Amino acid sequence: MTRPTLMLPTVAFLLLPLSALAQDLDPAANDPYQRTMWPLIERYCVDCHAEGTAEGDITLDIYADQVSALRDGGATWLRVLDALENRVMPPADKPQPSLAEFDAMIAWIENESLRAQAGGPNAPTPAVVMRRLNRQEYDNTIHDLLGLDLNLSETFPADDIGFGYDNVGSALNISPIHIEKYLEAAERALDATIRLPDADGFPPIELIGLRTYPLPADSPVEFEHSLKPGRYLANFSLVRVGIPEAVPPPRLVIGFGTDQRTLAAAQVQDETVVYRFWIETVEGDKLVRVALAPDEAEGPNVKPPAAVAANVSGDQRYGGQIGLHVDSMVVHGPITLDPATLPPSHSTILFENPGPNDQSRLAAARAITERFATRAFRRPLREGELDRLLEIYEMANEQGESFECAVQITLTAVLASPRFLYLVEPDDASAEIAAADRPLNDFELASRLSYFLWSSMPDEPLLDEARRGTLRTNLKAQVVRMLEDSRADRFIANFTGQWLQLRRLAAATPDPALFPNFDDTLRDAMRQETERTFAYVLRKNHPATELLDADYAFVNEPLARHYGIDGVAGDNFRQVSLPDRRRGGVLTQASVLTLTSNPNRTSPVKRGQWILQQILGTPPPPPPPNVPKLDEGAKAAEVASLRDRLEIHRANPQCASCHSQMDPLGFSLENYDAIGRWRESDGAFPVDPSGELAGGLEFADAQELKPLLAHSAAKKFNRALIRNLLTYALGRGLEPQDFATIETIRDRLAADNNRIHNILFGIVESPAFQNRGVPEATRDQLSSRITGGD
């Protein structure tokens, strides 16, 4: 008897493992969101974050499954991640997830949501907007290009800030005033760089007598001179007689022996026109020659047609002859440029000395312009670029300018060019969309690297790597070399000034009645300590968390006296070991403590907010409206401590959730007054710096908090530091696609004892840094192609 074939599937079904059977019966078992996240959200979150009653505009019951949660919840899950990592949600008075449940929710967001937003391995990189140099980058580049400190950007409009930094392309707009100031700055820069010959003080020497000389079509006008060898400024006058105005002027050749200058005659009728030009004589030159350029000898303004000649009466002042007449020539000189009086930049830029003729001058101008423009554009010149620049030189030369002036005008055009003023030029409009996410070429990569670590143009070793095509393989070595260079101090100042908000220190105004010892010398020492700390960790490749807690400080005598550290004399900074952890790390440095205080008192709220935002990367939301201000009156200060007054102030339930994060961090620094001096009491009340972080981590004071943050919060601190460095390096705001880069760098950092070079290496080796990137609209098209869509 034949068995029915229909029985086989039934038997196979009965033989399936129970787990597989359960998955078939329960679709949620195959859905990571339904399996992991939704049960926990339903248990702990939806009471406050359900549709229609969602607090904080976070709605968590609208995602049916993994697909909708990943597709629609990107920004929401970032906010949920911050709340979970900070242990601010659920609120303290609500049921709390276990540590395993917290970890499960965080893992789903990181591994499912954020990595999905980052895209797969073939996902296009977000584009870096082509941007102009900001003011500091402009001044640095001018310095490195010309060797001069000119501070030209002081007249530029202020740079706007985007995503916390002033080098973000989307914020660096350009206006008509920028264009005007760039041209003015270029002229000032080259005026300071190149010294022009000056004829003032040299008496005139007449070379032609009272008569005039008609200029024949087929021969020159010649006359002798007895000038000494050297350079002269010549004033040569020409008259155009009886030539119809419609006839264009010819070009002239004026020669002092070997030096031949080509000039364009002016189209002015019956008036003397004076041409000013520079000429050079050499030993043995005794003759001046004025002739038509070879291709102008038959020009109608010298040999007009018979009909014209018959109808135009010659001017009797010129013998009745129609045509061009040489009228006079006066020279001043000989003029020399004393090498001892020239700025070093002059000979550096004008490294070629031309001979005494136009061809030699043009060859020298070509060599000078090519080298200068190649350095200014930070890449080899493209086809036609040099020729277009030399057209400017030849126009100036034909107008009779000195060689130095003609070159100066040409180089001014280089400094006013978008190729100098902008970083990362776009491809040709005809380029394929799919090629838009191309890797940067080596010269573009060299520029991106140098403006990251030096805020300026690449140097010769970096450009040499680009020429040889070896930059990508030697990136780590170049990063280390560049960090050791003094130009990295610009990066240190710019980055710490914006990440740690040190730039705000310049505007801090502690009450002089309360803090009479605070002055600009102390302010500068405060800033330098923080910059030197960051520089030390960076250049020594120490753990990044050493920025939070260290057993050393950098002080000079004014700052050591401010801190109560003995044995330090003089204005020079030195590294000192600390007997305790009252100092060490940026949290307890006077710069940060001063800029996060009010003029007359400390501000635990500002200090706590600063730690959350700058150090942990989890800024609290803005305060709700109509919150009453803290009572700052003298009577209030006499009745209760600042801590007690803030306890009352934050009794508002709307404020409690944020203040529960900020205040413990801020109060941990209450042993430091408004300019960072150590104290045990605040007025009549003893300072209580103790507190508790989310998750039950207690600390007695800042000395206990710092190592707690350096270890327990290392993941958050590292992620925040990477985010800030990546934003600064790319010059753009970060997008969800950057999450994978951040996490890859963070894993690399954690695997090597948090050594900070891993962050820089990870950034410069990432596709986000090495690729040109794709604008959002184009990314949609590319993503469609990658996934096989229409």
How would you describe what is shown here?
- There is one protein chain.
- With 790 residues, the chain is of the alpha+beta class.
- The strands form 6 sheets. Strands 2, 3, 5, 8 and 10 form a 5-stranded antiparallel β-sheet that branches. Strands 4-9-6-7 form a 4-stranded antiparallel β-sheet, with no helix packed on it.
- α11 packs parallel to α13, α22 packs across α25 and α27 packs across α29.
- The radius of gyration is 37 Å and the shape is elongated.
- The N terminus and C terminus are likely disordered.
- How many individual helices? 31
* Major sheet characteristics: 5 strands, antiparallel
Strand % is 5-15%
CA-to-CA gap between the ends?
54 Å
Rg over alpha carbons: 37 Å
Q: Give average pLDDT, whole number.
A: 84
Structural class: alpha+beta
- Coarse shape: elongated
